[in-house]
TrEMBL record:
<protein>
    <submittedName>
        <fullName>DUF5662 family protein</fullName>
    </submittedName>
</protein>
<dbReference type="InterPro" id="IPR043721">
    <property type="entry name" value="DUF5662"/>
</dbReference>
<dbReference type="Pfam" id="PF18907">
    <property type="entry name" value="DUF5662"/>
</dbReference>
Amino acid sequence: MNRFFGHLSTITRHKIKVTLLCFRCGLYAQGIKHDLSKYSFVEFWAGVRYYQGNRSPIDREKEVKGYSMGWLHHKGRNKHHWEYWLDNSKNGIQPLEMPVHYVVEMFCDRVAASQIYMKDRYDDCSALNYYRNGRDHVLIHPNTDQLILHLLTYLSEHGLDAAIAHIRKDILKNR
């Protein structure tokens, strides 16, 4: 029962944080719809089963089973994940460029996840450090990689309020 309520609390706190960040960036519909699939049967129960409280249950499920059904379900329904934008072509799997508003949602998602899992250890460099740590293992379009890296670096150098102002003024200016 502790894992049930722990997981429910974690994903709900995360969703609220991302929603508020998306709202601050002007992405109202994306904020409302963000991660609703986490409440679906396949994602929610995998999250409960592998819940630890200090990191994503997806990571634990992958360690135990070698894959995560919850993650496969999640990444196929949420456009703010770079994995959603992979396509199989005659040249193999190719990364597609993400629309800017989904990269901004990815930024909000990474900031909120860092805040939730790192708690008091979070600072404005946390999301950038996490991204850099796994960057060699991703198949992401170069323009998408450049933009998310820019946003996370801007956050680390100027703080969250300035990063959101930059997103609104310079990144999403034509929306």
